[in-house]
Known about the structure:
four-stranded mixed beta sheet
Amino acid sequence: MKKTMNTRRSFIHGAAGAIAAGAPALGQQSGRVRGFDHVAVPMQNTAAMVAFYKSLGWDVVDNGTAFSVYCGDNMINFHKPERWPDPKFTNRAPAARPPCGDFCFVWEGSQASLKAMLDKANAKIIEGPGPRRGGRRKMGSSTYVRDPDGNLLEFMLYS
């Protein structure tokens, strides 16, 4: 009987310590989706798209079948025009055709610095700045432009 008590007591003590340390409660999953790593869309106008994203100040890497565009810790893979229509390339949305992207980025500067960056990239503002509820579950201000393929880019400023 004493051994059962110690085992039960040890189990409860261990479980309480694990929960206090941030471990999931018994019966709960230990993982969850944290966020996006990257998205992938087809591209049509390769030279114009590469020049545009470089003019935004983002790193652009040619990885053979796509151009990877890095924005902070996130990435957009733009599949090259010779890649996405290939019927053997099935690791994509079957109906994806340019333009099919609608991306929202968080801008950490002022409206004036955003406008200056967009002007430098020759990106025409099509809407904004204006109030919008964002993914951070609060209100911000959004400005919209299109890239050379016609994908919609939204830049969200939070106060």
